[in-house]
Amino acid sequence: MERGVVVCRVNRLDTDRGDGDDFGSSPIQCRCVGRIASVKSQKFGVGGNMKTREETRGVERGCVAVLDDGNDPGVGDRAALQGRWSLISSERDGEHLDDVKGTLTIKGDQVIVRLEDVETRYLARLEPSSVPKALDLTLDAGELKGTVLKGIYALRGEQLTLCLGLTPETVRPVEFATGAESGQHLTVWRHLLPNPNP
Fold it and tell me: Could you tell me if 50 and 42 are in contact, meaning their C-beta atoms sit under 8 angstroms apart?
């Protein structure tokens, strides 16, 4: 999903029954996951009755509102992942890493991981239809930019669990656990802020 996009799911769509000039009501639910400078006009409708208008009702000013037809299973997860997260626990190659401090910040598809004094930037791609849910993190800076790490994730309320391969050659984990020489890193995060400023 593009940075700065609000996903609005249409619950009901009433087309005009008169002269066609009015589109009717379209109750929507929006969640702001970013901000941009302006609001875009969107085309939508039923059958051949297409209309164009700007939709800002119920949306934080400066966000883009788009209509979602409900066919994308990742919409809910992408919205829920936005914000800042604090590290609760960390395990690598079967070894618990005590007293490691870290934050995870997600803005759109941009992911910033800070572990101690080391910051790493990624671009995330979700595969929410997989079991367990899968994600790919592509390094977005440095000499290894473009390198893809494969992982899985689970969202339970305000808690996010990630299990990632440490190298591009590491196969995608199949469970939320690591073993000796598995080449996998398991982390658990707690949600702090849902919508950090860009």
Answer: no
Question: What does pTM read for this prediction?
Answer: 0.64
Q: How confident is the model at residue 121 (pLDDT cuts 50, 70, 90)?
A: very high
CATH assignment of 83-193, given 1.20.120, 2.40.128, 3.30.70, 3.40.960?
2.40.128
Q: What does the alpha-carbon distance between residue 107 and residue 197 come to, in Å, rounded to a whole number? A: 9
- Residue 99's pLDDT is 87
| Block residue for tokens 């990624």 | 122
For residue 175, give both structure tokens: 């469970």
CA atoms within 13 A on the CB side of 23: 19
Ordered DSSP codes for the chain:
--TTEEEEEES-----SSSS-------EEEE-----SS--EEEEEETTEEEEEE--TTS-TTPEEEEE-S--TTHHHHHHH-EEEEEEEEEETTEE-TT--EEEEEETTEEEEEETTEEEEEEEEEETTSSS-EEEEEE-SSTTTT-EEEEEEEEETTEEEEEEESSTTSPPPSSS---TT--EEEEEEEEEESS---
- Per-residue pLDDT tens over the stretch 23-53: 333 333 444 444 333 334 444 444 555 444 4
Sorted by where each begins, the domain ranges of the chain are 5-71, 83-193
d(CA 107, CA 81): 9
78-101 tens-digit pLDDT: 999 999 999 999 999 999 998 899
